[in-house]
Amino acid sequence: QMQLVESGGGSVEAGGSLRLSCSSSGYTYDSNCMGWFRLSPGSEREGVASIWTDGRDTYYADSVKGRFTISRDNANQIYLQMDSLKSEDTAMYYCAAVSAWNNWCGTFLHRPGNGAHWGHGTQVTVSS
Length: 128
Description:
The chain is mainly β. The chain has 1 helix and 11 strands; from the N terminus they run E-E-E-E-E-E-E-E-E-H-E-E. The model has no long low-confidence stretch (mean pLDDT about 95).
């Protein structure tokens, strides 16, 4: 009953920037982990970044740390600022959320679990 919608994807040259947004509707959780995950052809799903309800605790994949920044306006809307993009960042980016009454968002980044709600993705293409 919770719906997540991603936006902001597109095509950009290497070194450029994009800002992804994820908005939720329907039933939402007072406390949650939300995050960004990506999938590219021939690769397993990768957790990119996750964030706790209060917006202070954040977690990143090593591959994007220092280049991407996750943030949130409130408990049910998050963003991903993507800077210094590389061709390796090309993927479909998905937003996910899960109810969490304590902060397990670091684990969520690597194993979101079957209880997570997912958006349908937004494509990011980075040309070299």
